[in-house]
Amino acid sequence: MKWLCFFLCCLSTSLFATPPILVAIAGGTGCGKTTLAETIHRLFPNSVLISQDSYYKDLSHLSHQDRAQTNFDHPDSLEFSLLEKHLYALKNGLGIERPNYNFHLHVREKSSEWIEPAEIILVEGILLLAVPEIRELFDIKIFIDTDDDVRLLRRMERDMRERSRDFSSIKHQYLSTVKPMHDAFVFPSKKYADVIFPGGGENQIAISLILAKLEAELSKKIYTEES
């Protein structure tokens, strides 16, 4: 990985005067990360949005029962080495083949999605600030701090609607892995954020501040390129 990082850094120096802005949007499950990320993505056409969840490890070698019992909230459940490689590539103007993950079967799809580089790279996920080699890649690190009860209700609604799970399984997963991993990894990682926003992804003042910061950074890039 070290030689790859060195190669890409050299490549970026020679080919790209101003690398894209990498933005991490972190926080606990159901905090509003996706809402905020999609809002920014919609308002900045020259941006791409990547979910940390796309990088869950493939569990097709396990039985479906064993897959369902996996701790999906621990950093070891994700292929962060691949995410790191992809972020380096995007930061240096190279496209990536982003994996697709099937949350019903807990396996990685055979198909992938081609992602082109852009001026703003948005990445959302619960553990982005908890993994040193990942968080160091970001120019702006955001942590959304939302009340635990609100997050739990949002997760229940999402898992029932989008992931075909019943209340019993959601409750078991939350108590056995989601909450313990939040306390162990997610919540402590907010100390690494550049800014912490309360109230979720619909905090209009927070959104306005983020948009203003991104606009200022893009203006700085344009000025640098023209100079």
Secondary structure elements and pairings:
Blueprint: H1 2-15, E1 21-27, H2 33-43, E2 47-51, H3 64-68, H4 80-91, E3 96-102, E4 107-115, E5 120-124, H5 132-135, E6 140-145, H6 148-162, H7 167-186, E7 195-198, H8 204-226
Parallel strand pairs: 1-5, 1-6, 2-5, 6-7
Antiparallel strand pairs: 3-4
Helix pairs in contact: 1-4, 6-7
Helical content (DSSP H or I, runs of 4+): 40-55%
What class do helices, strands and sheet pairing give? Answer: alpha/beta
Distance between the termini: 34 Å
Strand content: 15-25%
Index terms:
single chain; 227 residues; alpha/beta; Rossmann fold; 5-stranded parallel β-sheet; two-stranded antiparallel sheet; 8 helices; 7 strands; globular; disordered N terminus
Short description, anyone?
By secondary structure, the chain is of the alpha/beta class.
